[in-house]
Design a protein that fits this description.
Blueprint: E1 8-11, H1 20-30, E2 34-38, H2 45-58, E3 62-66, H3 84-98, E4 106-109, H4 119-139, E5 143-146, H5 163-173, E6 179-183, H6 184-187, H7 193-199, E7 204-209, H8 231-241, E8 247-249, H9 265-282
Parallel strand pairs: 1-2, 1-8, 2-3, 3-4, 4-5, 5-6, 6-7, 7-8
Helix pairs in contact: 1-2, 3-4, 4-5, 7-8, 8-9
């Protein structure tokens, strides 16, 4: 992108109606500079291997990855497998499968909800999850980044919902290379977000962006620049903190009458690229 100092990235959930193969074609045509690979879009077996070969052949850099199982404990979106050991094994399998096509990429994790409301137990399992997997990721040439989610996801997908809680979990885990995934939709209401960015910018491994309205479903995000998130101000705070990774558009839009998935997804990509440029320049 011409003005903003971050590569323009696209999360494959943003183009959920497209196939994996179409993602690759359209992203290349539209000037997307990095992709957040979503394992849920990949087939198994030979068909999946062919998709990964197509990704390598495309030359499109993979900045980050959303594995099929991302949490230490079962969550609403990822209820299986049940045990933490099995979930660690599933995440490890994703690392081994996808790291070869994503050198240097960030693999996202979420905490999942507190099991039976027991946050102490849940966070202890999450620490174990990251302690076991961070060295595996490092050996494969990639990194892990834990993502705090918006409070609307409590008791369903997350135990942490502020930037500071993400930092605390990273420090408690105490392993090299574990970073933080900063999703503006999830964290923009945190009153200490900008302070956290400026004081712990070295921990931020990947940036995801979209915009907010009061959700009508659990998948109701909007395009950058169409809501109240101060995207430009946050982008500048990140740049000043030393963040130099990709800026990934991650939009979910399902179960609402004006779903963005029902519109022109090529236009959606262009609109978000332009909106990010405008947000950057407007906050300069």
């Amino acid at each position: 992108m011409s003005g903003m100092p971050f590569a323009f990235g696209m999360n494959e959930f943003t183009t959920q109606p497209w196939s994996f193969e179409r993602d690759l074609r359209e992203y290349a045509d539209l000037g997307v500079q990095a992709v957040e690979l979503c394992e849920a879009k990949l087939a198994e077996g030979a068909a999946g291997r062919a998709q990964l070969k197509a990704l390598r052949d495309s030359g499109l850099p993979v900045c980050s990855v959303q594995p099929a199982v991302r949490t230490a404990v079962p969550s609403a979106m990822q209820p299986s497998p049940k045990g933490t050991d099995e979930r660690i094994a599933a995440y490890r399998a994703s690392l081994e499968r996808l790291a070869p096509v994503a050198p240097g990429a960030v693999f996202v994790t979420n905490t999942g909800p507190a099991p039976d409301g027991d946050m102490h137990r849940g966070l202890a399992e999450d620490v174990r999850f990251h302690r076991e997997l961070a060295p595996v990721a490092a050996d494969l040439g990639v990194r892990l980044a834990v993502e705090p989610l918006n409070p609307i996801s409590l008791n369903a997908e997350t135990m942490i919902w502020t930037f500071a809680q993400g930092v605390e979990l990273i420090e408690r885990t105490g392993v090299e290379g574990l970073g933080l995934c900063l999703d503006t939709w999830n964290l923009w209401q945190d009153p200490l977000l900008e302070e956290g960015i400026r004081s712990h910018g070295e921990l931020i491994s990947i940036l995801q962006v979209s915009d907010w309205r009061t959700p009508r479903s659990g998948m109701d995000r909007r395009s950058v620049g169409t809501g109240p998130i101060p995207t430009g101000r946050l982008l500048h705070a990140l740049a000043e903190s030393g963040y130099a990774g990709a800026c990934v558009v991650e939009i979910f839009s399902q179960g609402v009458p004006d779903s963005l998935y029902d519109g022109d997804l090529r236009a959606l990509i262009r609109q978000n690229r332009d909106a990010l440029e405008q947000a950057w320049e407007g906050a300069a």
